[in-house]
Amino acid sequence: MQMDWIYALVGGAIIGLAVTIMLLFNGRVTGISGIVNGMLKPTAGDFLWRFTFVLGLFIGGLILKVIRPEAFSGSLNNSTATVVIAGLLVGFGTIMGSGCTSGHGVCGISRLSVRSIVSTMTFIAAGVLAVVIFRKLGVIA
Fold first, then answer.
1. pLDDT 10s digits, 80-93
2. What is the mean pLDDT of residues 65-87?
3. How far apart are CA 124 and CA 41, in angstroms?
4. 55-81 CB burial, b ≥16 within 10 A, e <16
5. What is the pLDDT at residue 128?
6. Model pTM?
């Protein structure tokens, strides 16, 4: 428990390495919403790498589930409806913000993109505000 920061450090380094590899070898920013959105509107010759990337996310999760099942032991105190609505709002927000936190927050800020810095600050502020409001309303724990 006292060494959990190491997992965050190693995970962050792996994410940084992965987005660097994607940019160097594929010329693309690793924004999950953009990758998934591209799968929903496939273009010739552009689907396979997107599918493989998303499949890798799921396989990585399955590997973690086998190696460290306790990582999935948290409980969700919110209703399924709340989680579904929240997911839809996040999806809508990524469309409005022309990307998600992985695209803007990790890739954009590292490239010193002003648009990404503003977007990430907006994401964080909106998230904090939403939590405060929904906790006051008793919608989330």
1. 888 888 888 888 88
2. 83
3. 28
4. eeeeeeeeeeeeeeeeeeeeeeeeeee
5. 92
6. 0.71
Residue 29: C-alpha distances to residues 8, 20, 70, 140 (Å) = 22, 9, 31, 33
- In whole angstroms, how far apart are CA 76 and each of 10, 47, 56, 82, 132? 26, 33, 25, 11, 18
Q: Are 91 and 33 in contact (CB under 8 A)?
A: yes
- Percentage of the chain exceeding pLDDT 90: 23
SS3 assignment, position 94 = helix
> Closest by alpha carbon to 113, among 42, 44, 29?
29
Q: Which residue has the tokens 């890798």?
A: 56
CB contact at 8 A, 9 and 17: no
User: ∠ CA(40), CA(44), CA(50), 5° rounding?
Assistant: 50
